Amino acid sequence: MSFEIDNIDRISRKIGQDVLLLAFLDEEAESLDLYVDIDPITTWLEAEGIDYTLCTAFIEDVVFIEGGPGCLFLDVWPVKDPVKQKKLERKFGPIGGPGAISGYQLEVLELNDAMKNVKQDDPDFWDSII
Q1: Strands lying side by side in the sheet with 70-74
Q2: Rounded CA gap, 124 and 23, in Å?
Q3: Can you give the pTM of this predicted structure?
């Protein structure tokens, strides 16, 4: 089965605002690889009508070609979708933690941080990598 993986910071830059994400974390709160089993989480999100995108996590000046730390971009906006945000917080805990489910934490990537990797949006950047 194939699926598209995006970069959380690219999504933030594309839409021009901070983004809500669900980070995959181990017991020491370190990022887990994006290939962890997230089927129970995505099944719940789909049942609740919450759109998501599998992403690599944000690390300044780092390029992930394959694998890397994972997260889910959650297409939920506090002003537009307060009910969905409350559902997420009841399920996963408050933004920034502590997480209510081991291995997952709601976080926000601020646009200012996402802009630190803006050079990755230039096609010439990728031509030099590949």
Answers
A1: 6-7, 52-56, 70-74, 19-24, 104-109
A2: 29
A3: 0.87
